[in-house]
Amino acid sequence: MSNAVLLMQAAIRPALMHLAEVPGYERLHSPAAEEILLGIAAAESELRHKRQTGGGPGLGYFQIEPATHDDVLRNFVNLRPDLKAALDALLVPAMPRDMQIATNDAYAAAVARLVLWRAPAPLPRQGDVQGYAAYWKQHYNTVAGKGTVTHFLDCWHRLISPVLAGVR
Fold it and tell me: Smallest Cα–Cα separation from 141: which of 66, 63, 73, 77?
């Protein structure tokens, strides 16, 4: 079984379904949300690097930086008790949060989804890979990031397309 299939089945889908149980946050889970998160993991880590290559601050398959994680918690999650409880339920006990984003794939997927949730634009339609790439670059990797739309598309076609039927 590929890393993409495992990540979808064991982390992304269960984490998003769990968050979507919070009243008012049902749209956190959707097929498009699942797919873009899988694409983000492919583009950010090639579904294999849990520490940023070159020594940067990114952690886990989604390469979440501790500062981004802390901002999501401080300025969004902590202000919404029901959502905070749902996110906290994904934590591995007695593990520091930076280790959670590095090793707890369900927690990291949930945090990555919340990064996207805070973006001002809606997610692209399911299956819009070009839209996913542009959305990732603008709202996740950002203009300051080193990633490119071309890189996202290349990772998608190499790592996701061959197994996509197995994750749907």
Answer: 63
